[in-house]
Amino acid sequence: MSNSIESHLQEDRVFKPSREFSKNARIKNMAQYTRMYQESIEKPGIFWAREAKELAWQKKWTKVLDWKAPYAKWFLGGKLNVCESCVDQHLKNGRANKAALIWEGEPGETRTLTYRQLHREVCQFANVLLAKGIKPKDRVMIYMPMTPEAVIAMLACARIGAVHSVIFGGFSAESIVDRLEDCQAKAMITSDGGYRRGGVVPLKENVDEALKKYKGVETVIVHQRIGNEGAPVKMKRGRDVWWHEEAAQVSAKHEAQAFDSEHPLFILYTSGSTGKPKGILHTSAGYLLGAYTTCKYIFDMRDDDVYWCTADVGWITGHSYIAYGPLANGVTQVMYEGAPNHPDFGRFWDIVEKYSVSIFYTAPTAIRAFIKAGNELPQARDLSSLRLLGTVGEPINPEAWMWYHTIIGGGRCPIVDTWWQTETGAIMISPLPGCTPTKPGTATLPFFGVDAAILDETGEECGPNEGGKLVIRKPWPSMLRTIYGDKKRYRDTYWKDYQGMYTAGDGARTDRKGNFWIVGRLDDVLNVSGHRLGTAEVESALVSHEVVAEAAVVGRPHEIKGQGVVAFVTLKGSTAPTDALNGELRNHVGKVIGAIAKPDEIYFTPAMPKTRSGKIMRRLLKELVATGEISGNTTTLENPGIVEDLRAQLKKK
User: Fold this and answer.
1) Nearby residues of 652 by Cβ (< 8 Å), 6 or more positions away
2) Please, what are the domains in the chain?
3) Which tens digits make up the pLDDT trace of 552-568?
């Protein structure tokens, strides 16, 4: 990535943990981090063996790592049950009557499960699966709303050695078919429906539609969530059964069987450049250790914490930082079913206040939406219980970071800006809240065992402020093992660029302090007149303007410059879009980054086209600016009307 321009992210603001936070943190100073990090890189066998002892093993391993690039095996010879580390062990260590899950449905009903109650529910549902003939390594699809039963289903699969594959509840029937066919699922676990912004999501109906095309599912287990509030549910005789009816017929006792450390745990599908989803395969011991240790050190989890990750279990964040990592740490966590703005944008802050949440983990896109809604809603709540904030999913622009720090954290909460992927299984680059000096916009330094670097096209390591490809040079426990059913695609996608190194697919740079700045996906890097320009950098420059709440930037073919810069902008509050403001924003970007980065076109929109998880659908924006039309699947959009509005705007130009 030559010709990299100097980024505007030369951030001068530095925030150090308070003495009080550092004194009580697991990692208290940078000397301790440096010592542990060096050991994890130079003596990974010793480091990870010590950490792994904290999991519930039924048989100890004989060898920590076998690495034949690009294939890793961790804790060879060891046997454990992932569910035992997440649930059973807490019945023996004094947490049996501690709240494990505090759940709030979108309509407002609440439910709390202690670790003892969670254990009972998981064992009972494990017996339901066994009664339906589910065996170790059988693939089971889970397509559910954010209810405790979604986590119970995941843990029950892990308990009996079945491989779960969770599908985000916002996906369409067509998306379900693709995943069913790829993994050849034998069973499906779903709900009659779920709630979203006061409406009902017809989950069972979508499953029925998908199963018209895929005939391999023998059993559909349906959890009753909405009851009479939805359309009557059609149950196919001999295939479909009700969760509660099946549970009433089986025992609530089940002994956790030990499985090999490399036993497959789950397949999670992520979008691929070919259009065919990639089934990322994670196995047991290494994945669990990654989720466990990152929760322990990055979120600095304590026994009295109330932790809330706002992700959906259909994403990797929901796997690692709802279903597995927090439970392995024995923490109390909040689950919420619905939208962040139902009935208004105060819902999240109501929940923080109501349950005295101490650790809050959410996405930058949600933070920017809260900024647009104004400061009044969070400031009207008591958020003093918060002690640690986190972000996940994409780079956070400095102005959103500062708002999060000031308005939500009250200036006292460290922010852990985490970089990782579905493929990495756990957080890879992040501050440690008790010791790392943070700067708005950077994920700072690698986690233990993560040998991260930025390389140019020739494989040479880039210097400070030189953009390149982010790679990981050594194996780590929670790494993906393959793309399910496609080893060649696994090798070609992640291991082809540099011998023996994992290519993340993200562009990045380091500053002079060694902090990692993630620029964005490599396919989101524009080539403007020979200059490499990260779309995230232009977006961040736009959002740094006082009237801009959110921005999305894409490229379009340009006969002179190669690529032109097109920006979509959402304004704060009642600010009206004008031609003068358009010019002002173009000049603002030029001032922050340089004239080369000025958008050729700016389109104002009241909201971005987003999935239900809050992710901006940049693919649709790219297609719109290139062709003026949309041909891809838009069924996962939260707000499809926005696309039509933007299409009309583009046609006028």
Assistant:
1) none
2) 117-257 (3.40.50.980), 529-652 (3.30.300.30)
3) 999 988 766 778 899 99
